[in-house]
Amino acid sequence: MSGIFKEFRDFVLRGNVLDLAVAVVIGAAFTTVVNSLVANVLTPFIAAIIGQPSFGEINFDIGDATIEIGLFFEAVVNFLIVAAVIFFFVIKPVNLLLERRKRGEAPADLPTPEDIQLLREIRDLLKERP
């Protein structure tokens, strides 16, 4: 049984699992911040412009059904904020990092410069001398 616990401990302490756990905790905290931003800052501001106290109260009735379009709009704004933050603070920096790494690598198909070819010929001729 101790082998299983050791294997489990090694699995949990592996870098990827710890990184994922930290990401989940930070993501949950970030969700709270974004929800607060949408509910307490953006929604009242936009709602004041359109004349409603909050988006949650924007709805319309179709027969006996009530379509709460305001709550949907809040969810869309929330999603757009999260998507923008992820794009600008995760995707763009990672793409820039990958581009910088690619620039650091020399292309494999470059022809050998003439001076290098001449130096190699001289080296080979010197090796042949007694």
UniProtKB/TrEMBL annotation:
Its main location: membrane. GO terms for molecular function: mechanosensitive monoatomic ion channel activity. GO terms for cellular component: plasma membrane. Pfam families: MscL. It is a multi-pass membrane protein. Channel that opens in response to stretch forces in the membrane lipid bilayer. May participate in the regulation of osmotic pressure changes within the cell. HAMAP family: MscL. This is Large-conductance mechanosensitive channel. It comes from Tepidiforma thermophila (strain KCTC 52669 / CGMCC 1.13589 / G233). The gene is mscL.
